[in-house]
Amino acid sequence: xxxxxxxxxxxxxxxxxxxxxxxxxxxxxxxxxxxxxxxxxxxxxxxxxxxxxxxxxxxxxxxxxxxxxxxxxxxxxxxxxxxxxxxxxxxxxxxxxxxxxxxxxxxxxxxxxxxxxxxxxxxxxxxxxxxxxxxxxxxxxxxxxxxxxxxxxxxxxxxxxxxxxxxxxxxxxxxxxxxxxxxxxxxxxxxxxxxxxxxxxxxxxxxxxxxxxxxxxxxxxxxxxxxxxxxxxxxxxxxxxxxxxxxxxxxxxxxxxxxxxxxxxxxxxxxxxxxxxxxxxxxxxxxxxxxxxxxxxxxxxxxxxxxxxxxxxxxxxxxxxxxxxxxxxxxxxxxxxxxxxxxxxxxxx
Length: 349
Known about the structure:
- 46% of the residues lie in helices and 26% in strands.
- The chain folds into 2 domains: 4-135, Rossmann fold (3-Layer(aba) Sandwich), CATH 3.40.50; 155-346, 2-Layer Sandwich (Alpha-Beta Plaits).
- The strands form 2 sheets. Strands 6, 7, 8, 9, 10, 11, 12 and 13 form an 8-stranded mixed sheet that branches. A 5-stranded parallel sheet has the order 2-1-3-4-5, with helices on both faces.
- It is built from 11 helices and 13 strands.
- The N and C termini lie far apart (77 Å).
- By secondary structure, the chain is α/β, with parallel strands linked by helices.
- A hairpin with a 5-residue loop joins β9 (268-282) and β10.
- The longest helix is centred in the middle third of the chain and has 42 residues, at 111-152.
């Protein structure tokens, strides 16, 4: 079994010899330093399991040495016992413990007390290191859970779940909804391997996410090859219609460029509508965040009747952005449960 290494720091040679004899006879490995400054250098070189240091020493005393240990990443966890024959007032003891000492031994040394305190300090230090590592593991797991929540739910919903353990259904006004799906996806997917198909969707939707976030929008969910996003929902934005429409034009442009070099060519239809929506978590065991309402239904109808690689918007959205894009239309569109509405296409060249 490897010996425990103890660094003894003291400027009195006779004390070093006495404490070395006691500890060495109890199967400890002893190394020496004559003052605090030298103690720091020796500790960095050998990384002892423990330090016993005198209080009063030339160049750097024991308290200053302890303080230096406690700001060093490599020395911080080394337990330090301070040893003194004269600095034993309650005020001095408090100063030693405040600096970071783990125990205090009075001179002259009692061999039995010394061994008992050394073993106790080593055991306490070991326990503290275990607790510290457990805290790190807990924080690491917490970070993983936080990241998982943020990857599954919109940021505001994830924060509510962390803080309150739930998220209340709410009605959101002045929101614009984006829905897209991939044209002939089922047919194309049938000719691709499962892994290849997953990689393609991951790549496409990852870039959709980047574009949405860049334009202050957030993805709500994907369902197969369909992609749902909103703007102005959890974070009110007077430019919600413009932002999500701009994101849509950038997505169309991204796919056009991707199709020039990629083996698999993907085309989408896009529907956009503005209004109010309901957002809430569905399920009690398996959570899914979803959005509902006529605004979502209308955006879905616009998407289903859109032309390939075109952005089909409602008159409601058109009125919010009619001075910011070039349009084609209007044309009449029948929406189930709502009736006929005017719709427009964005001129995407």
